[in-house]
Specification:
Chain lengths: 109, 116
């Protein structure tokens, strides 16, 4: 079974703080995607990382794919209330996309 | 719009009744997924369709759950003899490419099922 464990499960912070979300697995993935889901909506893709060690930036969000392509991290700088949501990693390389357990982020003003 | 469309958006039913949830994927997308999401939780994989291949049903929780995809397009998820633990949001997603090279998944807004 390919499992993607995310940590922390829940994070409540103040506006302006930095945070990191981790996505870990014992399996190797050909690529890894990060999604954000807001209440009442489906998840929306933020980024896809493909190469081991790859770093991608999306404004205040920095995504990194581990060298061995088994793990990934999402770092948010100076979090804002608009960053609130459920963050999901998802690994590709098997017959179906495998989703992580999710990290719920709450950013308070 | 040209996104993934799901219906109904909300369904309240009585325990023991059957329900059908519909998903209309983006035209041309070969891969279609169904997921279940309980309140505030992550996505639980249910079933995956890829082109004309036999679906991957490994995530269906019991034989009360079934799904079909007609003509490689619209999919219907059927839950027979619903139970209260079936209450959740059922999300459908489609992708242009599936399998080992799965690309971006485009999700519908989900069907919220409440079993009384």
């Amino acid at each position: 079974t390919q499992l993607l464990e995310q940590s922390p499960q829940f994070l409540s912070i103040q506006e302006g703080e930095n945070l990191t979300v981790y996505c870990n697995s014992s399996s190797v993935f050909s690529s890894l995607q990060w999604y954000r889901q807001e209440p009442g909506e489906g998840p929306v893709l933020l980024v896809t990382v493909v190469t081991g060690g790859e770093v991608k930036k999306l404004k205040r969000l920095t995504f990194q794919f581990g060298d061995a392509r088994k793990d990934s991290s999402l770092h948010i700088t100076a979090a804002q209330p608009g960053d609130t949501g459920l963050y999901l990693c998802a690994g590709s390389g098997f017959q179906k996309l495998v989703f992580g357990t999710g990290t719920r982020l709450l950013v308070s003003p | 719009g040209a996104g993934v469309s799901q219906s109904p958006s909300n369904k309240v039913t009585e325990k023991g009744k059957d329900v059908e949830l519909r998903c209309d994927p983006i035209s041309g997308h070969t891969a279609l997924y169904w997921y279940r999401q309980s309140l505030g939780q992550g996505l639980e994989f249910l079933i995956y369709f890829q082109g004309n291949s036999a679906p991957d049903k490994s995530g269906l929780p019991s034989d009360r759950f079934s799904a079909e995809r007609t003509g490689g397009s619209v999919s219907t998820l059927t839950i027979q003899r619903t139970q209260q633990e079936d209450s959740a949001v059922y999300l459908c997603a489609s992708s242009l490419v599936g399998g080992r090279a799965t690309g971006e998944l485009f999700f519908g807004e989900g069907s919220r099922l409440t079993v009384l």
